[in-house]
Amino acid sequence: MNFKAAYMVLIWLIQTNSISAENLLYFEQNDYVVKYHHIHVDFSDPGFVEFFELKNVKPNRTYKAFSARFHLLTDIEDNKNFKTNVKAFRLRTNSVEHLLFQFNIDVCQCLRKNTFGMGQVLSAGNITTCPIKKGYYYAKNFIMDDRRMPPHVPGGNYKILITLMKDKITLTITSLYIDVIYKLKH
Ligand SMILES: *[C@@H]1O[C@H](CO)[C@@H](O)[C@H](O)[C@H]1NC(C)=O
Ligand SMILES: *[C@@H]1O[C@H](CO)[C@@H](O)[C@H](O)[C@H]1NC(C)=O
């Protein structure tokens, strides 16, 4: 079975509730590293955030991180209404995008359970808890932990489209360009 087929089975198992989406919050892998190229806010609902800045920063030669600043006009609640939809498109040399997999996760659960190593956001600035009350926030020089990414993802170039939604209404869309690079086996 190839990787795409394996992921289709995984997604089908989640959609049919054969395995709990909770399990998805505990990714662990140590076979590849992620190289982050570019992050871009494609859309933000002006009724939700007045201002949303997300960028790559490179405090020194070996360290690549992200910084974020935003002014929330609405609380991000800790419930199932606030979802993040994550779509992984594999990029080919002929620039055709190919949707490899997608899933939805709760925003607060993702931060709390450190899914994708996102938990670091909570110690990088003044977003310290979830739910997040409306207000001005920043998170500086945070990294995502490669070891908390999904296992068995095929190596290559990806565009990750991250859509924050409340009750199916799109609040923000962010795209992140990455390379998945497998470590050499000894
Ligand atoms: C690079 O910067 C990060 C974050 O400030 C720091 O943790 C790390 O030790 C630095 N590495 C070097 C080689 O200076
Ligand atoms: C977060 O920090 C910024 C910059 O210091 C400050 O303006 C803002 O009020 C802080 N937000 C909260 C909710 O404490």
UniProtKB/TrEMBL annotation:
Domain of life: Eukaryota
Leader peptide range in chain numbering: 1-21
Keywords: Signal
SMART domains attached to this UniProt entry: DM8 (SM00697)
Protein name per the record: Uncharacterized protein
Organism: Popillia japonica
Lineage summary: Eukaryota, Metazoa, Ecdysozoa, Arthropoda, Hexapoda
